[in-house]
Fold:
Amino acid sequence: MTEAYLPILVMMVVAGGFAAIALGVSALLGPRRPNPAKDTPYESGIVPLGDARRRFPVQFYVIAVLFILFDVEVILMYPWAVAARQLGLFGLIEMAIFVVILLVGFIYAWKNDAFKWQ
Amino acid sequence: MTFPTLNFPVIAPQIVLVAAALIILLADLMVANKRILGWISLIAVIGALAAVFVCRSDSAAFPLALGGPSGPGTMALADGLGLFASAAVLIAAGLAILLAIERVGDFSRFEKPGSEKKQARSGDHPIAEAPGPQVTDRAGAYYALLLLATAGMTAMATASDLMTIFIALEIFSLALYILVGFNRRDLRSGEAALKYFLLGAFASGFFLYGIALIYAATGTTSLEAILHNIQPMSISLPFRPLLPVGMGLLLVGFGFKLALVPFHMWTPDAYQGAPTPVTAFMSVATKAAAFAALIRVLAAVASYDRPWLLALAALAVLTMTLGNLAALRQTSLKRMLAYSSIAHAGYLLIGLAAGNQLGVEGALYYLLAYTFMNLGAFAVLLAVQRRDENDVTGDRILGLAGRQPLLAALMAVLMFSLAGIPPLAGFFGKLYVFSGAVEAGLAWLAIVGVLNSALGAYYYLRVTILMFMAEPAESDQEISSGKVETLQPGWAVMTTVVLAVLGTIVLGLWQWPWTQTIAQAVSTLALR
Amino acid sequence: MVPISYYLILSAILFTVGVVGVLIRRNVLIIFMSVEMMLNAVNLTFAALALHFLSLNGQIFVLMAMVVAAAEVAVGLAIVMTVVRHKDTTNIEDVNLLKG
Amino acid sequence: MLDYAWLMLLFPALGTLIIAFFGRRLGKGVISWLAPGTVLLSFAVAVSQFATLLGLPAEERHHEVVLWQWMTAGSFSVDLALLIDQLSVTMALVVTGVGFLIHVYSVGYMHDDPRYSRFFAYMNFFILMMLTLVLANNYLLLYVGWEGVGLASYLLIGFWFEKPSAADAGKKAFIVNRVGDFGLALAIMFIWSTVGSLRFADVFANADVLVAAGVIGTVTMLMLLAATGKSAQLPLYVWLPDAMEGPTPVSALIHAATMVTAGVYMTARSAALFDLAPTSAMWVAGIGAATALYAATIALAQTDLKRILAYSTISQLGYMFLAVGVGAYASGIFHLATHAFFKALLFLAAGSVMHALHGELNINKMGNLRAKLPTTYWTYLIGAAALAGIPLLSGFFSKDEILWYAWQKSPVLWAVGLVTAGLTAIYAFRSVFVPFWGQPRDQKLFHHAHESPPAMTVPLIVLAVGAVLAGYIGIPHLSLIEGWLEPVFHAGGAAAEGAKAAYPAAWVEWVLLAVSALVALAGAYFAYTAYVVKTSIPKQVRDSLGWFARLVENKYYVDELYDKVIVNPLRDLANWFAGTVDKAGLDGAVNGIAGIAGWLGGQARRLQTGLVGLYALSILFGAVALVAWLVIR
Structure:
């Protein structure tokens, strides 16, 4: 069985080896003459204005956090969906309770202006 | 297809708590007087406590079955141990809420995000701004999170499946991470939350991996089934050798929550940085929940054989000694009590390391005693803490006996109980666990424990010295001229302290109802 | 069919990488990612074991662990934000008021 | 009647609570009646108990009063119960009787103290705890009292906390006592896990179980450790001299008359155990004898009046340990009772001196005080004479008994005891002659000296009467107290009966009696020559008297011989003990241990760097170690 995966292993070894050899050889053989111009992010382009790692407004994080929560919690609906018919009314009530809990959280976030871009 | 059977009485406390948390979140949007929310949550906790006692009166175990290919197992078990630990958690929660009712505003009120951003750009201290109309009060979130944490802890205390334990642990941990960082005006609070969170998540990783490896070794996560499966010759398990690895990693997770050395390093930072009512709550309730779960897990997986007990004994020695030593030279009282709580986790662990009936009974008794005395001690700290501060140094209690004799006397009782002076509860807790160790043939462990409590007496004593044998840091003149804010603790805080002290005394002098309940709870466990 | 132990070894390696990441990195967010990596390594274990035991339980555990991880991310990001608001840094070593 | 024994505890308990919480509102007037009143009531109850016991036949003088069921753990249970028998009633009489007098004295002594009410709350609390200790019917309740008196002692030593030395002394007392307490706690745990009960009657009846389990030696040695801490024996005595920083009534009540005797009481109470552990009993006797000699030597070198008395207390406690160690439990308790009277008297008289001299305690600054403080002088003289063992005073009878039993056990112990008796006489009379006789050394102090108020002198007189008479309950061969107490100690053991049969001939006893009387008198005479005669005759008088002076000088040759052969070596030894062994050695060790713990604490703090990476590393280390141990095992 494992033989089936042999080509993949070979490919990984070849790819990794190639990358290692290429980097290693150039590091060993290549000349090293750094200058300020070379160290800029765009060696032959416009002069960068300020730091590339710019700060994002904090609202991005709020949105991201809320997205993750409501998005991922829905994962729990998948197993229910698979077995919904067998679980019947009991499962439906369970899921309704779950959704209500999410809903309360949603309302709380909403009323606290979490979705307003201030 | 069999339907899962839900046994509502078993999860009744959690249902009450979660429902109350949701109601509070919604009510928070409607009411302006946040104190009402506190009362609602207090009623919810009392309701949950009542639910626990209803379960107790039925006294049979309520299995919550999870049907599955690996055979049915129970997810939660309302046996004596679970109910006892739940009761301890709920008592802690109730006292913590009562404690916070008057003081929650100190750390839950802050400027709205919009105005805060402006200040962050213009000035460096958004704290200094006078509270204007833009102030937000997050008290509702505070109570809701506290209730959710309580729900998680009670769930952990009754959980009888490793996955339930993990989820319960995460529920209360997540709530606690936020609660620790609740004081937005103090950077220390945020720092404490950050450290607690990063390390907590790290330890959760170990915990989960431990569960995975135990699952690999035994093919199940139900404690009952594990106990069955690891009997020799029951079923073939190719990954059986992974069991000790998994158990070790699981113990790391428990060690983190219980603040055992060397998994303790977050404790002083988190306890010091967190708002004082939160510290009071988490220092006792977390331990109650995690100890109950640990007792259960050890009974199932380790079956109390010697290497386990020795590992626990080693952890106990490290924990007691380091906790006590580090507490000796602290200036912040909150930090001192944090180290002291580490030391107490060590004493508690002695009972488990003894591994016999008496030791485990002693640990449970100690747990309840510790709940009262440690929570009471933090409550006193809150009583003397200034509204604009988040920490309490020794200066705050200098000469307290002169200003507030009652408060000082109550604190002295708590300190003496923590130091293990009879006839207070703390003494009997130590007596039971140490006697358990002697009975188990671990007399050396008892000796280390007793020596450590002598060491511990030193710094508890220092507190009473500061209160009874020192003059206040500020002269009377300064106080009367209004330079220094004189703080009269509100009645709610005082009630909490009085209740905690009463608990400490009653538990010491009127023991048999408690010890009988505990003996019943422990008798159902598979111990040596 | 790959032997189940390969998965276990791979997940152990991933877990170790995560642990090392937590230990050596200084940026809070990267430490954070390392923790997530640990959790995902465990998820891999669970998934593999679900196959091994021919049981759905392992898969359910994966889902639960994912949800827990997501909740952790949300809480963690919120905490990081409060710290960053106070102190303009994500370097963990700059956040060091509490010690001793 | 015996069922009302709990009243003894109730009165001081009520006193404590009322004074602690309403003391300020009540005012000094009420408190000065209330606090001694509660103790007097307890004393009255104790007397009634005593009378009831007297009316019972000897074998029925054992009564237990169960107040409530305290704790149960499995099959094991402990009641909150009191034991009334000859021993506990005797102790209760001493505690409440002496305690009452000291309360009365304190009313005068503490009159101007700003924390008057707090003082009496502590004092009543102490009486409560001491009674709990002596009336307990099980080791656990005894331990409650044991810790309680330690706590009260610590609060009272540090009562004048404005003096840093007082606060430090309180702390030291508490810490050193904790070391001893840990012995008792462990002993209790051993008894519990072996016998399964902590009730005295059960434990003593099943003492052979402890022997069979092979822990009797451990248990008794742990008890000895506890006793050395509480009763200030070698090597844990270091806290007691420092404890003199407390108010003088405290020194009298706690650090002379009652609390420090708790170790003796416990050892006597556990007679059934010590009878079965001869090695431990020998240790008790040895430590007692060594402490007696050692502390008496140091007392010679002290100049602070209260410190002299403190070391003398340690030395006398050594006698009591010697007694209980050689199996003479009744004699030990007898000496405890007489000592309570004369030592309380000495301390209170010293307090009266201190009161008169505005806190001055250095005896080298006093002199001729008998002219100014006649009552204090006479009572102090009686106390010192009793302490020195001058014949026909209480100390003489009790000390003689102990020496007599020590002789039967081992002449070496007797010899040590005898030497100590001589030293005791010397320092006791030194503390009389130097401050009260001779010329005033500090005129200003002398000038302002005045006799104390009646509230202070009346207890002195009462105690002085007690110090004279208390000995007559134990006159050899009439020995009422021995016949009274003996049944308690030999309820089950036949071993002691055998010892009685082997008594040496009666004439030996009389010879020994005479020897110890002579030694005491010789010591007193020696003190007279060394501290009165020699210093009171100025040198120039001697020089100007020509040939007559030679005679006098010849007499002084004897003195010089004294000096060369006895005084100087003795003084050097005393100084060496006081300077090197006491301060640098034992005291240093106690302080050193505290220092090391503090240093370790600092190191432990430094581990906590605040860096998350390190914290995570610590978790990882723990994880690796745990997993490695569990996998390898």
Observations:
- The radius of gyration of chain B is 23 Å.
- Residues 58-71, 114-133 of chain B have pLDDT under 50 and may be disordered.
- Chain B touches chain D through 77 residues (CB under 8 Å).
- The longest helix of chain B spans residues 187-218.
